[in-house]
């Protein structure tokens, strides 16, 4: 069983409410769920959709085909009718859309009328539509009724009651009138999975890592991290500060980190442009910081609500001067959670900036995960604080050491001073000009740390045939799309996926010699959501391996699995 | 000229509509007032330039049939400064949101006022970040709720108008979208003034601000403006924003002083001698 539901309409019509409710019901019914959204940069109007797929098998991407299309506007029908499966159905409210289609795929459900009959409120159109979808699927209504009781409990019995009736009205109407519907969905063995999205996973990873300070300026697609952390502020004691701009945001986080707590900021390309000065300061002062950088198509304001992998090279070279940095690019919520944790660990251990490079597609898609493995969470306090600091005879913030890592002490915990300086400095943190100290500091800050940092980086994920002829290589958010394409294509060819989520520095070849592997395959392909192949250029610079053929997409939308399969087929002639 | 003819004259009506704003958004009232002000000013359309930042307010120039620059968040005044200095013959205006003008663009704003170049800043103050989903802005009132102030805002708002006055603006006015008829006059005066002029317009964002603060309907917000605005003429010398949650509207400052270009010409004359 594998069904897809698409809900289309204008911004502000509540397509997200319907999608979220259905997603939660399917999860409670024991299914795996994958959802993604496509919306315009506006609060109201335009055309938006929410696509939800559920199955008894784990899912990692959306498919083009749609089994049930919930059309809240006419455009949903014109745009998505073509994607309907043979037995698919379109549900719509003919009187609200002022449009009627008697075709066998169309089912007119008077959402508005049914909503008004319950409580005289059009707001409940969404609840009716949710009930109708469940009715068509034949999935018993208990789960949604429980969910409604949960969701509206603070709004009082009346609201709960009205919404329950609205669900039932939609449900019954669909059962009665969708007599040719062939869907059959029953509650599966009930498992406790959770449905999480990319930004939420990053936020949860930060909480699990002991993040105590988050400052940011709102910018899609990173705003969700701040909103999430702000809503849990009282529970977890994270201080969330919405700064006046991104310059302030990163510098506040650097201040908090200097003061002794784990600190993070988040933004998107345009905002990160403003953070670059602070990034360089973090490099010079060796102040740990985690930066979540959510890519959207640029340059400038670009396509604010759409997706791209166009900022990898920007991060690689951002900030004047030379200093170490690490970039992680998660491809799944699970990776987002664990790599955020690893980012904190590495930032603190090496006293460097570490990036979580994600994008709108990852931010806005939701997956079912069994749970995050808290045993794998790493938390070591690398800072010198309290008595340990007090008991030191001397303290020098930038003391020369074998590893280049100097003791990072918490100011105020002892009578020693903690001196940091943006100018070049000596071991004590005082400004210097002399060449000898400069050389030793560059060695300490940069050259000694680099080889150590490299040992932390994990090899890429490999999936599929060890002897594959065709290898689909990718990084970041394309993980699920590539994996599902490999599953399909494996039916007719020898194929594998090579996916990088730890992208800079690139993994050493010791544990897995991916370069030799790529060299011996017949058709290595690099897949990226950008115009020029930034990752493939990085790989070439670092390893000498060159992808002769790349598959790039830069229209601001993610590949669908079917599209990617088509692209691969088009290139098979090159074997 | 009636509103329909004005729309035909000043809007990119066949290309850019429907607009992105939510039904009932105050920005439409501001746009209407702006068109009426253009007509009163009777400036050659081709000599008028509108710059804007990013946000719901920043989308305004997208709809007008003028030379427009929809730029980056917070920076509209800097582009406007460059335009005016390069060609002082142009009438240059910048349309910004409260976050745009006074959070990320706050530094540019105070320096533009101090510089006193002949520009007109139209600031649509909806007391919230509309475009990004309701985070607080520098003008969100203390105690109000926002996406990033779930339990009520703990920072205090500042007054854009007072800030502009102290920073050196030559002309400062405030209006609201409830007092729609007054707006066009304020805008007209601001454009006619030589020097840096600011028109702050209190506008309703019932979707992001109102819904979180018990004013979910546009009408509720308009009534709030009606009940809390005090005419500057009746304020009897009370400073514009010392009226608890009431605020003054009308012309708040109109200072006679040479603008930047006059100063510049004078210094050039001096240098030549
Ligand atoms: C450098 C940068 N940071 C953040 C953003 C995201 N952003 C777009 S509009 C906006 C704020 C909008 O609020 P406001 O300026 O008050 O205008 P409104 O939308 O309320 O009219 C933000 C934060 C951006 N575009 N660029």
What does the model show?
- The complex is a heterodimer of chains A (575) and B (273).
- Chain A has 575 residues and is α/β, with parallel strands linked by helices.
- Chain A is 39% helix and 20% strand.
- Chain A is built from 22 helices and 20 strands.
- An 8-stranded mixed β-sheet of chain A has the order 6-5-4-1-3-2-14-7, with helices on both faces. In chain A, strands 9-8-10-11-13-12-18 form a 7-stranded mixed β-sheet, with helices on both faces. Chain A has a 5-stranded mixed β-sheet with strand order 15-17-16-19-20, sandwiched between helices.
- In chain A, helix 12 links the parallel strand 10 and strand 11.
- In chain A, helix 5 packs across helix 7.
- The radius of gyration of chain A is 26 Å and the shape is globular.
- Chain B has 273 residues and is an alpha/beta fold.
- Chain B has one domain: Rossmann fold.
- Chain B has 10 helices and 8 strands.
- In chain B, strand 5, helix 7 and strand 6 (197-202) form a beta-alpha-beta unit.
- The N and C termini of chain B lie far apart (50 Å).
- The model of chain B has no long low-confidence stretch (mean pLDDT 94).
- Classes of the chains: A alpha/beta (575), B alpha/beta (273).
- The interface between A and B is medium-sized, with 27 and 29 residues.
- Thiamine diphosphate sits between chains B (54-57, 73, 97-100, 124, 126, 128-132, 137) and A (217-219, 246, 270-271, 274, 301).
Spans where pLDDT lies below 50 across 5 or more residues of chain A: none
Bound molecules: thiamine diphosphate
CATH homolog superfamily of the largest domain in chain A: Thiamin diphosphate (ThDP)-binding fold, Pyr/PP domains
User: What fraction strand of chain A?
Assistant: 15-25%
What percent of residues of chain B are in strands? 15-25%
Radius of gyration of chain A: 26 Å
| Rg result of chain B | 18 Å
């Amino acid at each position: 069983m594998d069904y897809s539901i698409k809900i289309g309409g204008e911004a502000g019509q509540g397509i997200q409410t319907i999608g979220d409710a259905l997603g939660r019901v399917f999860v409670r019914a024991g299914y795996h769920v994958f959802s993604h959204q496509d919306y315009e940069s506006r609060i109201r109007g335009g055309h938006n959709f929410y696509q939800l797929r559920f199955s008894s098998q784990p899912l990692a991407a959306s498919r083009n085909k749609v089994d049930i299309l919930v059309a809240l506007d006419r455009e949903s029908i014109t745009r998505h009718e073509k994607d309907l499966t043979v037995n698919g159905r379109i549900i719509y409210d003919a009187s609200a859309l002022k449009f009627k289609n008697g075709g066998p795929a169309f089912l007119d459900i008077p959402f508005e009328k049914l909503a008004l009959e319950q409580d005289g409120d059009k707001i409940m159109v969404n609840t009716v539509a949710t009930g109708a979808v469940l009715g068509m699927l034949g999935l018993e209504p208990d789960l949604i009724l429980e969910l409604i009781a949960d969701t509206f409990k603070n709004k009082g019995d009346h609201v709960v009651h009205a919404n329950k009736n609205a669900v039932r009205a939609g449900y019954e109407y669909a059962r009665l009138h969708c007599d040719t519907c062939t869907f059959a969905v029953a509650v599966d063995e009930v498992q406790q999975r959770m449905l999480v999205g990319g930004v939420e996973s990053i936020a949860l990873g930060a909480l699990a890592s002991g993040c105590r300070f988050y400052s940011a300026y709102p910018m899609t697609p990173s705003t969700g991290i701040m909103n999430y952390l702000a809503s849990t502020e009282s529970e977890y004691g994270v201080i969330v500060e919405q700064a006046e701009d991104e310059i302030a945001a990163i510098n506040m986080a650097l201040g908090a980190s200097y003061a002794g707590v784990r600190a993070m900021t988040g933004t998107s390309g345009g905002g990160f442009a403003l953070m670059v000065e602070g990034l360089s300061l973090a490099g010079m002062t060796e102040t740990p910081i985690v930066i979540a950088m959510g890519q959207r198509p640029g340059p400038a304001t670009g396509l604010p609500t759409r997706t791209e992998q166009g900022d990898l090279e920007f991060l690689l070279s951002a900030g004047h001067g030379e200093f170490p940095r690490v970039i992680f690019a998660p491809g799944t919520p699970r990776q987002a959670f664990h790599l955020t944790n690893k980012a904190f660990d590495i930032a603190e251990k090496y006293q460097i900036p570490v990036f979580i490079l994600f994008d709108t597609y990852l931010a806005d898609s939701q997956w079912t995960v069994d749970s995050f493995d808290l045993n794998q969470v790493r938390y070591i306090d690398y800072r010198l604080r309290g008595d340990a600091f007090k008991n030191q005879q001397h303290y020098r913030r930038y003391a020369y050491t074998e590893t280049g890592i100097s003791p990072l002490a918490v100011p105020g915990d002892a009578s020693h001073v903690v001196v940091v300086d943006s100018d070049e400095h000596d071991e004590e943190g005082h400004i210097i000009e002399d060449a000898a100290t400069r050389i030793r500091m560059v060695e300490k800050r940069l050259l000694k740390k680099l080889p150590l940092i490299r040992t932390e980086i994990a090899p890429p994920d490999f999936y599929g045939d060890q002897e594959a002829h065709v290898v689909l290589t990718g990084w970041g958010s394309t993980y699920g799309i590539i994996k599902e394409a490999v599953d399909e294509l494996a039916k007719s060819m020898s194929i594998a996926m090579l996916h990088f989520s730890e992208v800079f520095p690139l993994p050493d070849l010791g544990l897995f010699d991916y370069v030799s592997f790529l060299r011996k395959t017949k058709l290595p392909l690099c897949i990226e959501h950008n115009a020029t192949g930034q990752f493939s250029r990085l790989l070439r610079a670092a390893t000498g391996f060159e992808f002769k053929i790349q598959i790039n997409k830069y229209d601001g939308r993610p590949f669908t699995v079917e599209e990617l399969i088509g692209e691969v087929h088009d290139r098979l002639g090159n074997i | 000229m009636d509103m329909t003819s004005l729309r035909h004259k000043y809007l990119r009506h066949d290309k850019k509509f429907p607009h992105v704003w939510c039904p009932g958004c105050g920005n439409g009232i501001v746009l209407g007032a702006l068109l009426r002000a253009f007509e009163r000013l009777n400036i050659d359309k081709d000599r008028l330039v509108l710059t804007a930042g990013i946000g719901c307010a920043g989308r305004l120039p997208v709809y007008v049939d003028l030379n427009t620059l929809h730029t980056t968040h917070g920076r509209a005044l800097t582009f406007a400064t460059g335009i005016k200095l390069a060609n002082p013959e142009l009438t240059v205006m910048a349309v910004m949101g409260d976050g745009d003008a006074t959070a990320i663009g706050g530094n540019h704003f105070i320096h533009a006022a101090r510089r006193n170049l002949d520009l007109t800043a139209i600031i649509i103050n909806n007391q919230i970040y509309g475009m990004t989903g309701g985070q607080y802005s520098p003008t969100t009132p203390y105690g109000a709720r926002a996406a990033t102030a779930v339990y009520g805002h703990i920072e205090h708002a500042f007054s854009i108008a007072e800030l502009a006055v102290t920073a050196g603006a030559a002309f400062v006015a405030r209006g609201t979208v409830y007092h729609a008829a007054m707006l066009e006059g304020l805008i007209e005066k601001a454009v006619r003034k030589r020097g840096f002029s600011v028109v702050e317009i209190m506008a309703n964002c019932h979707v992001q601000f109102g819904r979180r603060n018990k004013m979910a309907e546009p009408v509720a917000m308009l009534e709030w403006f009606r009940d809390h605005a005090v005419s500057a003429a009746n304020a009897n010398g009370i400073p514009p924003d010392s009226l608890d949650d009431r605020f003054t509207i009308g012309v708040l400052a109109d200072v006679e002083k040479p603008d930047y270009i006059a100063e510049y010409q004078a210094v050039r004359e001096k240098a030549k001698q």
